[in-house]
Design brief:
Number of helices: 11
Strand order of the largest sheet: 13-12-11-14-15-17-16
CATH architecture of the largest domain: 3-Layer(aba) Sandwich
Low-confidence stretches: none
Strand content: 25-35%
Bound molecules: S-adenosylmethionine
CATH superfamily of the largest domain: Vaccinia Virus protein VP39
Number of domains: 3
CATH topology of the largest domain: Rossmann fold
Radius of gyration: 21 Å
Number of strands: 17
CATH class of the largest domain: Alpha Beta
Largest sheet: 7 strands, mixed
Structural class: alpha/beta
């Protein structure tokens, strides 16, 4: 087996425990995605496991077709829909979906009997509600444009990396594609650091940072619904002693001159960078998220960041940058870590 495409497959219920253990042992390969197949989870690892993990597991090569075939529930969905929908709709059935807690988000464009289809997806994937993604994520507050097709209740608790995120999937976004960044943020700060999360949402970065790094976080959020869940999630994850919150526009509510580190988890952070610099205790680290044309990454983006820092009388040293995901054709979602002095 090649060492670089190994994964460990465990039961869904054991996945969080095993993943945390892998993080601790520095064996989790966060450059590859964690995959879920029905009741199994496939976690990418850097090397073979050489310690006892106290549960049933299998080491596989990722992309192992047989493994996927065994666990992919799509065949079961098709089987259950046989005779219930027109033949031409089988071609349109989604092979991909997003499961957040026990709420499912799928695209059903062109399908006639959407409710029946959604009901079967919900049964097979063990979900209480199904939302159709009709317009993606929109606006400053990053609200989902989803339509309820099956079920009633769209509030759920989604668990990732041992963190509990409670939210209403019909009202609040959760980008599964940012999982690696949420894991990176869990292990980035150190204890006793003061961090300001300028765009906290429901606690995407605030919670892993407080839980795993024990940093003190001041979390700002403008959307009252996201803010309500942020407060609930702080309690759910037992970090109320470490995290305080501010409702409102971070340009107004974020305290100035206090932070060792600032997180800017917003796709147009660069326009807020002068404010983030003021939030730092004179110097510190800023994680700048930005949508960026493919051809502008990283050079033009870095030049812009340095220019803004210079205009504030500061020097920006680039510590790290990476592409998080493709956002739209030829547009990337990127993050740049900058040391300001
Ligand atoms: C949804 S999060 C981004 C997602 C996150 N990067 C992740 O990992 O999934 C961005 C949040 O910033 C909030 N927001 C937008 N403008 C803001 C502002 N000026 N001040 C504070 N919060 C703001 C939005 O309401 C939203 O909840």
């Amino acid at each position: 087996m090649e060492a670089n495409n190994l994964a460990i497959v465990v039961k869904k219920d054991d996945a969080e425990k095993v993943k945390n253990l892998l993080i601790k042992k520095n064996l989790l390969d966060s450059s590859r995605k964690i995959k879920r197949y029905n009741d199994r989870v496939e976690i990418p690892i850097k090397n073979e496991i050489d310690f006892d993990i106290n549960t049933d597991y299998k080491i596989v090569k990722q992309n192992d077709f047989l493994l996927r075939k065994k666990f992919v529930p799509f065949e079961e969905i098709k089987e259950k829909l046989r005779g219930k929908i027109p033949m031409e709709d089988f071609e349109k059935l989604p092979k991909k979906w997003e499961k957040l807690g026990n709420v499912l988000v799928i695209k059903l464009k062109g399908i006639k009997n959407k409710r029946e289809v959604a009901k079967v997806y919900a049964q097979v994937l063990n979900c209480k509600a199904v939302l159709e993604d009709v317009g993606g994520i929109k606006g400053i507050e990053r609200k989902p444009v989803f339509k309820l097709i099956y079920g009633k209740d769209t509030e759920t608790i989604h668990i990732e990396n041992g963190i509990k995120y409670k939210f209403d999937v019909s009202k609040i976004m959760f980008s599964s594609g940012n999982i690696d960044e949420r894991i990176r943020m869990a292990n980035t700060a150190s204890k006793n650091e003061i961090v300001v999360d300028m765009f906290a949402g429901i606690g995407y970065f605030t919670l892993p940072m407080a839980v795993y790094s024990k940093a003190r976080v001041i979390a700002c959020e403008i959307n009252p619904i996201a803010y309500k869940y942020l407060q609930e999630n702080i309690l759910l994850n037992n970090v109320e002693k470490l995290v305080s919150t501010k409702l409102g526009d971070c340009r107004i509510v974020a305290p100035r001159g206090v932070a060792d580190r600032v997180i800017m988890g917003y796709l147009d952070s660069i326009n807020f960078l002068p404010y983030a610099i003021d939030v730092l205790k004179g110097e510190g680290i800023i994680h700048v998220h930005q949508n960026c044309k493919e051809e502008d990454f990283p050079d033009r983006l870095i030049s812009k960041i340095k220019k803004i820092a210079k205009e504030k009388g500061k020097y920006a040293e680039i510590l790290f940058y990476k592409k998080i995901k493709s956002y739209a054709p030829r547009i990337l979602h990127c993050v740049v870590d900058v040391a300001i002095s």
